[in-house]
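S1.2 Input.
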Amino acid sequence: MTIAYDGTNYHGWQEQPGQTTVQGTLVEALTTILRERPAIEGAGRTDSGVHAAGQVASFKTEHPILIPRLLAAVNSRLPDDISVTEMREAPLDFRPSHHALGKHYRYRIYRSAFKPVFAGRYVWHWYQPLALEPMREAARALVGEHDFKSFEGRGSYREDTVRDVTRLEIVEAGPELHFEVEGNRFLYRMVRNLVGTLTEVGRGHWPVARVAEALAARDRMAAGPTAPPQGLCLMHVRYP
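S1.3 Output.
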């Protein structure tokens, strides 16, 4: 399945007891159709409040329902803020997380003195000016294969924190800045920590060189703040 969702009303992707999650909502919808509770695996775990345009997930079933009918049936049972946009058969050994070659995230900052009334659920509202070129210069130090431990969110303790960021581009889109981030894998809250760090450069609090120093430090305290969740969207997961 390819899934789009507005994460505002959910405690993230991962199913949790007593919490409303995207995965849990999908499980409940599919259970009513298949008369069995499927184990759904996603390509990644988005945090509470984070959105997706192209999350990928899979499950196994022996139910004989045809895929077009299953797609229509599941969407008819989902709330308006979740949509399965594609469904297809996959090999039995397909694992959405293990077989992914890379992911593309977009983080949106809205630059204005006024509140973004219609986009507020999907952007980080920034009142102050942000210097674009220094942020772009600092971002170049983050592209490539590095140890990103400084940008790993607290509460995650992975032994392997080396990741390959293949693209970190900052694009102007009217009043918005889009941080286009692509890589093979990402650490917990890594994209939000990268964005929060680059805004420290954009607002003039950090010199450009300090971003490379933060990367080399391998210490979360050396990097900048965590950007809020609502600006982040998982755009696409890439497979062979």
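S1.4 Remarks. Strands lie at 2-5, 41-42, 51-58, 82-86, 102-111, 124-126, 144-147, 162-173, 176-183, 232-238.
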